[in-house]
Amino acid sequence: MPYEFKSYYFDDPIVDGRVMDIMLPRSVQQPLALFFIHGGGWTEGSRANYHAIMRAFNQEGFICAATDYRLCAPGITILDQLTDIRHGYVLFAELLKNLDRPVRIITHGSSAGAHLTALLSLATPGQCGESKVFRAMNITDWIAPAAAVLQATPVFFEPWEDIFPHIWTAMQMAMGESYEKHPELYHKVAPYRYISAASCPVFFMEAECEHMFPLKYIIQFTEKMRSLGRRAEYKIYKNAEHGFFYDVTRRQQKEAFADILKFIHSLPAKE
Fold this sequence. Notes:
Blueprint (H helix, E strand, L loop, with lengths): L2 E7 L9 E7 L7 E5 L13 H8 L5 E4 L10 H21 L6 E6 L1 H11 L10 E2 L2 E2 L8 E5 L13 H11 L7 H6 L13 E8 L5 H13 L4 E10 L9 H16 L5
Parallel strand pairs: 3-4, 3-5, 5-8, 8-9, 9-10
Antiparallel strand pairs: 1-2, 2-4, 6-7
Helix pairs in contact: 2-3
């Protein structure tokens, strides 16, 4: 096996949905590490969705982690999920420190995972209204991600023209409150709101056949980032569909993998 695999449980006793997998290459050759957040409409999915991609990055010398989080259900909302992934991110940062590695982390997510990844990467802990504390875990020190790679991202969280009905239902379920009653809650979890002059670089991987999240909002996001002097770019993958980057076997997946490597290697040694 070309890598070492470990699972970390956040709590004792174990709480379902708070588990993180680490893949350590036999030879760590890269100064940056990768942190993956799965999608699944906020109500399903697993960290295992990223294992194939993590193995591919391991072969390039990257330390990788993929976290689970509590799935949305009555009493569990996006804010709880954001708490969970922040805790996973902090645990990963501590692991890198213990390995005497730099804490320079690239975040990646797809669909609902891209939404959570964007909030993790652009907003500071607690800024969206989420708790920094769950059970014995509390976020004290925070080292922001070095960059984010996002695929199929809802950069706004209010209803837009011709919104796909299924995704709007999922978004409202994940918020735990109706938009009509509490629109301010939806505004607070819109990644676009957290663009600032301090935002980390962002690379959007856009499927040509994306049917859930309109490209025009990604363009609006990148334009705002650039207006503040921050790096943001996007690429459209021909004949690719929503959530296409789950392996590195198809042409579009190999192309995206190569583009992520190019993006990572173009980042400055230290921001």
